[in-house]
Write a structure and sequence with these properties.
Elements: H1 4-29, H2 46-55, H3 62-76, H4 82-101, H5 106-132, H6 138-175
Helix pairs in contact: 1-2, 1-3, 1-6, 2-4, 2-6, 3-4, 4-5, 5-6
Length: about 180
Amino acid sequence: MIPVGRRLELIILASTPSLITAALAIFYLSSKHLSGLGQFMPALPLIPVFYWGLSHSRDMPYWFVFALGLVMDAVMGMPMGLSSLLYMIFLKLLHMQRRFIQKEGFIIKWGYFGALLAVFNVLDAVGLAFFNTGPMDIGMAFLQWLLTVCCYPFFHKLFDALAEHIQSRRWHILHGS
């Protein structure tokens, strides 16, 4: 039987990816006082969704990305449910290809992230054009895609270290003394 303190630590370790994603979403949604930065802010919440959905799929559940999308739609004034749908499609596409990409090197994962993010941005542009009955600025969408893809390596390195720590702590709690 696992003591209560260790169970609590297991719960915290299991919720860490979701908490990180929520923190990055808050940063993404917070007002930026630099001129024009809010228009092309990197899509930071998608980076942990990709990383944790690829390497540890149990740590990034569908219900969480659905709720995250609803919150983002509500805060940004987007059509309710659009981001939820897109986040769930993003995660589903990731899970469908997970067995082929999980064991690959960093460059392949980074390239797949860029391709999947491009699909996400195209679907987002089509959805917004449908709801707003007008064209979307492709230049800003491309700049956001580029910045997000360029930010991915830094977060990947950070998440690798964090995932190793989480796995080590889980093993020590469940099997160690």
